[in-house]
């Protein structure tokens, strides 16, 4: 496995792929391998299936007191040989796939080569990073291993998955990648001492609130409707003297399973949720069995939606979802990955919005965004639908509306299921005005803002046609102007001069606790050291 | 062409080629023949007495209903095609379409990821092509069908050049 060697002094002459995490930029031909136990963690399902297949037979025979078929005379040897053969094949397959998977992180790129017969060489530019996840499945936590996911903007498919590395190495590698992607200068004397950017905790969700959120979620509404329907069925059946109540009750079972699956998914993904901010972006950590630590660098959030399910209004709770180009709509845990805040009070929402949108672009962020969350009519400077559409949308016409700040467009909708979508001007991809026959009769139109793939689909509903056209024109101009001033992709490379100064434009009370995501804190990180970074992810 | 209420002020739309109406009509005729044939299967079975039990009114409703809906769609095609238009502005491209459900879309040049020019066999026979713009958003459904081939090539070059000049990240 030794290719032609680079001239680098750090690379020993015998260097094949190593298992050390690359801390200095790799040369073209220095490669690394993931942890050898990785295929086992990934392929444990196959092993479990095998164990189940043989084990079940075994157990049943033991309990019946019969001699084992497998171990009956003359067969024991054959059976053992088959079992051993299958095991050897599996382990051999695991080992080969591990051997042929190599990766490297150079100054500019991360590359992964994998596959035995069908080789795959993948390369991604570091400064195109949209998000980095460190994931620990349950088995990975037992072995102290973690998967590193590197996302670029290709709507869902992870650009690079390194599975699995020891947890500390995965975190170290994440810090390395983020440091290089950000364009921060490395300490020339110690190029291998890249320390994780210091982070400031922003909020944590207490466990009781997670339970409450699950109980007040849509699953409960579904459960109530189901009980109502089936209760009525039972009552009617009883009155008509049917004998089929068993059938009606058995219809409850799949419904109940779905409801509890709903509870579980809320609980398992919101459990132990913590958010923090660092110069490398927003950090989210959560999970009950499988734990995830997500990092979203500055300027990677394309759109935000704050929603409130029906029952949450009793507690004034909200949920925040985001569109990040790298997350896309991949099936695996997509719901949790795109959640910036699974459940939070209004002040939590304001804090998280401040992270995503460091400059709200208004003098009264609490007024404007508060009106977006729960207000109606014109409070907070919102423009709503004209009164004549009340026949068409009698519940929502006072709530549907929009507000524009210097930096973002807020689209408000929903009376019972409240929703607020925020799109930074420089993230608007394209826009469309829609008008159907009824809307033309009422002289209104919808404005749809297009953003990258994700759960947020911002629409300004039923605006007066003149207002809608003006918004359409002005928003196009604003987006064009904002694009010219957007942050560079390497977020620490050179500071954009902020003409307004850093203070007047942030949510008050927020940034004393957090750090402006674009402040150049790299020198300070040297002082924080490795010890400081470990505490949060070791549980 | 009169301006619809949702069209921005001061825009003169470039309309697509009238030949695209013929292309659409040919496609529509083929589709109609197939749809009516499929919907008439029960009627045929009934009249040939293979399936005499099938209710006659239902069989007739299937056939005539499909025929009427298809004819109505055919009548709309010329107006639909005439409603498609585009306009190049300094910073962005405007595209409109639709008569009952209208849409006006703005695609900034700097947001374009790539431009597709596609030609099908029917379109080629009439010297037409479709131009499609892609941004990072899957919702950007910015297609301009039925553009004369030379104009499509000019659009592609023009859009690419302007996209280069105003390139922005995501």
From TrEMBL, chain B:
Transmembrane segments: 21-45, 57-77
PANTHER family xref list: TRANSMEMBRANE PROTEIN-RELATED, UPF0699 TRANSMEMBRANE PROTEIN YDBS
Domain YdbS-like PH, chain residue ranges per copy: 82-159
Protein name, entry field: Membrane protein
Domain of life: Bacteria
Organism, as annotated: Arthrobacter mangrovi
Keywords: Membrane, Transmembrane, Transmembrane helix
Coiled-coil stretches: none
